[in-house]
Amino acid sequence: MSKIVKGLVLSAIASSVVMAGGYKIPEQSLNSMALGAAYVAHTTGADTAYYNPANMAFMGEKQYAEGAITLAHLPSIDYYGMAESEEENILIPNFHYVSAPMGDFRWGLSMTAPGGLTKRWNEQPGKSFAEEFTLKVVELNPSLSYKVMDNLSVGAGLRLIYSEGVVKSDAPSVPLKLDMEGDTIEFGYNLAVTYKPTPDINMAATYRSEIELGEEGTATINGTTMDAGVTVPLPAALNLAVSKTWNNAFTLEFNYERTYWSAYETLEFTGTPLPVSAKNWKDTNTFRLGATVVLDKITMMMGFAIDETPVPDETLSFELPDSDAKIFSMGFRYQQTEALSWGAAFLYDSKDPRSISTDVDSENPVIDANGASFNGGGAFLTTVGMSYEF
């Protein structure tokens, strides 16, 4: 019984942070989707305000605006052939704006959904730990750039985060039934710098601060409703990127991302009898490569990335049976007029199968006498978007 109770805590709390980070969505525009988020050093549109505000200083004299919508399809995840999670389809919008320059200063604004997914298990044993978890995360990110020199600029922004979530689990063998709702508004910041040693080379670094998501709401446990809360980290992330352009027609960008998941050590509900549990996630590395080809009115883009999971075997859970991934992406943009362009992009996040042997010394409830095995999952993301300059 204690193992199931602990597992419920792991699933319920982890869902709040996973949707904002472990399953974070770095692709928040048409170009970034097509390039697999290898889009930090060489940014060209209104989405520069989000991905590297320092680069706003190097844009033209116009104002820039763009919007896009992404359909995320999440295939089911198989547990031992015994149970499957539900398939999910989620719409994710975004909007970006960059102002005209004001001397050496410039400002921008982005509205994004950088995290937030849904996972549901209607079969046991998954239903005992994650019958449903849903988290919506919306970020408003005003930013400012300053051109220090003709080849050096800096930028900074304020992150305003709103999130709300639902967590449900049903373990009849205990019995223990959990139904929780909560929300929060939090703040953070982001920093950026770009250096251009030559006109065709960009070197950039960006940093997004850690944000503690202090979810507050109510939890109903076995029919008893109480005020409840939990604080989990939306981890800090550092991006280092370099791009090279040849003849204003072909650009390659390499991006290294370090996400500081080690901030996610323990989990505790306040106001409930549920016990404190350890998570002990690890910092992760992501390596991205993107290519852009300009052909008259059509711009073609493609990307590839290798992404690590932060979740150790000891705390793997049904709401996030995560694994290392390979990411493949491609897309195009068509210049309809001098001011208007539109396009589409597709990304496939391919998750490696994950198995845990019985050698793992853990109280993790997903591990039985045979270990544990998860297959499937991943994501298919399709984006359509439009940009306008004026």
Report on this model:
This protein is mostly beta strands and about 400 residues long. The protein has a single domain (about 1-390), classed as Outer membrane protein transport protein (OMPP1/FadL/TodX) (Porin, Beta Barrel), CATH 2.40.160.60. The chain has helices spanning about 1-20, 30-35, 50, 125-130; strands spanning about 65-75, 75-80, 85, 90-100, 105-115, 120, 130-150, 150-170, 175-200, 200-210, 210-220, 225-235, 235-245, 250-260, 265, 275-280, 285-295, 300-305, 325-335, 340-350, 355, 370-375, 380-390. Strands 1-4-5-7-8-9-10-13-14-17-18-19-20-23 form a 14-stranded antiparallel β-barrel. β11 (about 210-220) and β12 form a beta hairpin. It starts with a helix and ends with a strand.
Note the gap between the termini.
Answer: 63 Å
- Unreliable residue stretches: 1-22
| CATH superfamily heading | Outer membrane protein transport protein (OMPP1/FadL/TodX)
Helix/strand structural class: mainly beta
- What's the helix count? 4
Short summary:
The protein is mainly beta and 390 residues long. The chain has helices spanning 2-18, 30-34, 48-51, 126-130, and strands at residues 64-74, 77-79, 83-84, 88-98, 105-115, 118-120, 132-149, 152-171, 176-198, 201-208, 211-221, 224-234, 237-246, 250-259, 266-267, 277-278, 284-295, 298-307, 325-335, 340-351, 354-356, 372-376, 379-389.
Keywords:
single chain; 390 residues; mainly beta; Porin; 14-stranded antiparallel β-barrel
Explain the layout of strands and helices.
Blueprint: H1 2-18, H2 30-34, H3 48-51, E1 64-74, E2 77-79, E3 83-84, E4 88-98, E5 105-115, E6 118-120, H4 126-130, E7 132-149, E8 152-171, E9 176-198, E10 201-208, E11 211-221, E12 224-234, E13 237-246, E14 250-259, E15 266-267, E16 277-278, E17 284-295, E18 298-307, E19 325-335, E20 340-351, E21 354-356, E22 372-376, E23 379-389
